[in-house]
Amino acid sequence: MTKTVPEELRDSLVITAAVLASYGSALLLEDAAHLHVDIVIQSVALAWVLAWTQRDADRVDWAIGFLVLPAVAMAAAGTDELMSDAAAAGDVVFAVAVAFSIWIRRFGPRATRAGTLAALPFVATLVVQGPIGLPASARDGHVLWMGLVALIAACWVLLVHVAAGCAGLAEPVPRRRSTAPVVPQQRAPAGKGWARLLPSTRMALQMGLALGAAFLVGHLAYPDHWTWAVLTAFIVCSGARGRGDALYKGAMRTFGAAFGTVAATGIVGLFGPQDPWAVVLLFAVLALATWLRPLNYAYWAACVTAAFSLLYGYFGESDAGILRQRLEAIVVGAAIGIAASWLIAPVRTVDVVRRRVADALAVLADVLGTQAGQTDELGCRRARFDRAVELLVEIARPLQTQRALARRIRKPFAGRVRKPSPHLADAIDAVRACADPVRTLSENTEPIADAAAPVLANVTAVRLAIGRLPGPAYQPATVQIRAVREIDAALGRIAQVFPPAVNGYGAEVAGSRREREQ
């Protein structure tokens, strides 16, 4: 479930501790083996992102990580050398590798996490381009050293997480988490054209083509700093859950980068090249970025942009012209990522919301249908419902932002006070409102199924409307149990967002125009 601000602060401290430990080990390794400084930078980048992505990993995921990360780190290092020798070939290999890490998500949660880990070393190579790039004289054994550095980073992240769990500062590493889907997996979607492709395939296409375009534009427009456009295109397309999410991430990345650039303009000038205090401030900014990321993506983007400015300033690139060029490249990369998400095998936001709301209601029906004596089963169903709510929370922020903007824009033009039209965010809010009643029902020993029968009928009616299938309209139910009444009221709000289908074609007048806008 959603963490509180103090919990997020605690997590950021644990992550920062792992990053500092990895940084110290990389410094010792660099000095002992006379390696290039890019080893240290990549160690920090890998540890930081790995600690974030593995916060809720179980022992199986960690085992997969230890197998995947060093091998992929060596492959990424080889790709980095290829990009230096033959840019076009290296760029193609990079784009295909990252796209493949997304395509394998079709094979389930374990493959999804493995794909996420596989993309990390490739992204880390983008950080050490430009003034930090590896010279040809330092290439001997570099691929093997990168595998070792990735292994060291993974070890430190796991050790710090385990220690934090023992000290009560983080959740202990679970033995094994359930990887079962919220509802049973279905076959590939039917339809025509792009609709016949699985979401993982469509997202992989978007990522591959967006990276290819970013490489091309970056090399032509910013030959010395092409990585900024590529990195931004990756961030916008990575994990974008529909067109709306891609647009939101692109906008937040741009606004955050603009603020970070303005702040960095004044900060970087305070430090000269090779100033150790710039490194101290850089780690402080990374810790702040980790803490603020769950609050708003723009905060994270601003902190990361400031951290990049400190890093490049440490290596002697700190003039205002470079900062402005970085912001320009970020805008270009964001535009490329948004265009790819909207034009290439697009995933409509309304389709994502329909699918996830329907899945949550399917689990809710299981909760309401629990018979007497199924106490343990009810607890499992509640856990599945909580997971369904979390999946909806993941896509809520862009829709909530759109709803707030739309209502603020329409308000001055409204001739009279009237109720706002239903929005997709309202459906997500309604499902989230069911979490507390479901928790109450799971803690109650009284049978639910008989008392909730009218509400179960409404769940079926709303699910049919979401699927654009003909069926009865929602009718407010009369029930005695308060928690069940609250669930029924929430179903009524969802029914306003997804009116019943007409003649089986889903041609609802109120909803059709709204859906075309998503």
Please count the beta strands (DSSP E, at least 2 residues each): 0
Give the overall pLDDT as a whole number. Answer: 84
Specify the structural class: mainly alpha
Which strand-content bin applies to the residues?
under 5%
How would you describe the oligomerization state of the chains in this entry?
single chain
Q: Characterize the overall form.
A: globular
Helix content: over 70%
Main sheet attributes: strand count, strand direction, barrel closure = none
Low-pLDDT residue spans = 503-517
Give Rg in angstroms: 25 Å
The number of helical segments is 20
Pattern of helices and strands: HHHHHHHHHHHHHHHHHHHH
End-to-end CA span: 27 Å
Polypeptide structure, described:
This protein is an all-alpha fold. 70% of the residues lie in helices and 0% in strands. It has 20 helices and no strands. Helix 7 (199-221) runs antiparallel to helix 12. The radius of gyration is 25 Å and the shape is globular. The two termini are 27 Å apart. The model is unreliable at 503-517 (pLDDT under 50).
Summarize the model shown.
The chain is mostly helical. 70% of the residues lie in helices and 0% in strands. It has helices at 5-33, 38-53, 59-85, 87-103, 109-127, 142-166, 199-221, 227-237, 243-268, 276-292, 297-314, 320-343, 349-368, 375-394, 396-410, 424-433, 435-442, 453-466, 482-497, 509-516.
